[in-house]
């Protein structure tokens, strides 16, 4: 039987968790829609300037990791992403803190966005191309942005926490 504090915690989680999964779903949908649009609009490897040559869209396919970094392969990265996503979901269900859970949802949405590409096409669609004369950042996508910004937000939110461990009956007082 649940104690009153456990019941209160459970009720708080019911309010927070759907918002986090909605954030994940929103990132996933935005990521997939932008990739679909770019695959239909752009020719592979032919850049289109958006803000001069500083910001442009260039269709690229990536079998490696984030930002078109080419290590691993679709199978290894897919297995890693599935394991990381399962960990994220389990962790999201255990921790408290609305902001932490929401940002983890953003990271989850990005991870699942790139995983979807790998599972369907065996590669990830990248198209955001930033740089200047002589130097360009590796091409990336909406999922990569979500993973990076969400990861940075989670880092700073946890850095400000007194404890980083998952709450258990043993370590709660």
Q: What percentage of residues falls in helices of 4 or more residues? A: 55-70%
Describe the biggest sheet? 4 strands, antiparallel
Structural class: alpha+beta
Beta content: 5-15%
Q: How many separate domains?
A: 1
N-to-C terminal Cα separation, in Å?
A: 19 Å
Oligomer: single chain
Q: Please write the string of helix (H) and strand (E) elements.
A: HEEHHEEH
Descriptive notes:
There is one protein chain. This protein has four helices and four strands, in the order αββααββα. It is an alpha+beta fold. It has a four-stranded antiparallel beta sheet. A hairpin with a 2-residue loop joins strand 3 and strand 4 (135-136). Helix 1 runs parallel beside helix 3.
Describe what is shown at a glance.
With 173 residues, this protein is an alpha+beta fold. Helices cover 58% and strands 13% of the residues.
Brief descriptors of the model:
173 residues; alpha+beta; 4 strands; four-stranded antiparallel β-sheet; elongated; 58% helix
């Amino acid at each position: 039987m649940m104690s009153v504090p456990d019941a209160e915690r459970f009720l708080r989680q019911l309010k927070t968790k759907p918002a986090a999964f909605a954030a994940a779903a929103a990132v996933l949908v935005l990521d997939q829609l932008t990739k679909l649009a770019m695959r239909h609009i752009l020719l592979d490897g032919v850049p289109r300037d958006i803000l001069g040559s500083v910001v442009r869209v260039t269709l690229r396919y990536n079998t490696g990791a984030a930002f078109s970094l080419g290590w691993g392969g679709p199978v290894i990265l897919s297995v890693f992403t599935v394991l990381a996503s399962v960990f994220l979901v389990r962790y999201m269900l255990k921790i408290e803190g609305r902001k932490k859970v929401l940002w983890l949802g953003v990271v989850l949405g990005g991870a699942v966005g790139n995983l979807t590409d790998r599972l369907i096409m065996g590669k990830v669609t990248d198209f955001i191309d930033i740089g200047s004369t002589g130097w360009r950042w590796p091409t990336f996508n909406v999922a990569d942005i979500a993973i990076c910004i969400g990861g940075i937000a989670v880092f700073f939110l946890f850095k400000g926490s007194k404890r980083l461990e998952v709450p258990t009956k043993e370590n709660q007082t």
